[in-house]
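Anyone up for a design puzzle?
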């Protein structure tokens, strides 16, 4: 199965991708996590991406498309994958089609902007594996420690309110048209993301015809 998760920043793409990984046994590829690894290692790509990410803008398509192509060529993608945070522009969607990806379904997690802004202040992310938690809605077993890998949890720099608002505006302008692109192909599933995490998971599984 090849799936795409689309949604506003903080819609729950990473959270729901983790549930789908467990169910489907295929990797989730988050372009945001790959970029943050490049930032942490101080690579040339990381340095080129830094300014865009800090301001909440999108990293230019050419950089992202090459990065994704390299990731999809790895052997763990042979049986399928979940794309979390790609494509974010119609050009990226066209490039994915040009790679012969053959996407099965696109799950759009639909949310409300003001709720997202409240939600983001409580997010904590694992520095080692990228797993996402929330101080109220999705607590780790031990404060400050990733329940999956034991890595340290931190608050992302781009989760402050001003930057979240910029990211939401970028989402509406540049990523909403991607939904129309896949709607035309007849593979877009719209899921109401304004509910507790397990409820949203059930909605996604039901829409994909998966048992829990
Ligand atoms: P990226 O890392 O992809 O960020 P994003 O898309 O803005 O998404 P987030 O990771 O913020 O949110 P999410 O939907 O995964 O939510 P989560 O599950 O964590 O991108 C960062 C930057 O990298 C971009 O701004 C851009 O600069 C660059 N970039 C990345 N990809 C790019 C691309 N393709 N092209 C160009 N540039 C790119 O949930 C959020 C919080 O809410 C968590 O705390 C979670 O526990 C909680 N939560 C989740 N669901 C619920 C729920 N139902 N109820 C209550 N709380 C919930």
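Challenge accepted. My sequence:
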């Amino acid at each position: 199965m090849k799936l795409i998760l689309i949604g506003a920043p903080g819609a729950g793409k990473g959270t729901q991708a983790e549930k789908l990984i467990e169910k489907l046994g295929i990797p989730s590829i988050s372009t945001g996590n790959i970029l943050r690894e490049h930032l942490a290692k101080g690579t040339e790509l990381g340095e080129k991406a830094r300014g865009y990410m800090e301001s909440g803008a999108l990293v230019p398509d050419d950089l992202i498309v090459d990065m994704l192509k390299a990731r999809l060529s790895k052997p763990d993608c042979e049986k399928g994958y979940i794309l979390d945070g790609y494509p974010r522009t119609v050009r990226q969607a066209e490039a994915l089609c040009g790679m012969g990806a053959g996407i099965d379904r696109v799950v759009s997690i639909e949310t409300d902007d003001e709720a997202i802004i409240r939600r983001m202040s409580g997010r904590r992310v694992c520095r080692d594996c990228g797993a996402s938690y929330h101080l109220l809605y999705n607590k780790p077993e031990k404060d400050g420690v990733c329940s999956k890998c034991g890595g340290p949890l931190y608050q992302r720099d781009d989760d402050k309110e001003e930057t979240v608002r910029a990211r939401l505006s970028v989402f509406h302008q540049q990523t909403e048209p991607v939904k129309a692109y896949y709607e035309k192909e007849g593979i877009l599933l719209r899921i109401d993301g304004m509910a507790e995490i397990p409820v949203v998971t059930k909605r996604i599984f039901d829409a994909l015809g998966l048992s829990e």
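A detail worth pointing out: The pocket of BIS(adenosine)-5'-pentaphosphate is lined by residues 7, 9-15, 30-32, 35, 52-53, 56-59, 64, 85-86, 88, 92, 119, 122-123, 132-134, 137-138, 167, 193, 196-197, 200 (CB under 6 Å).
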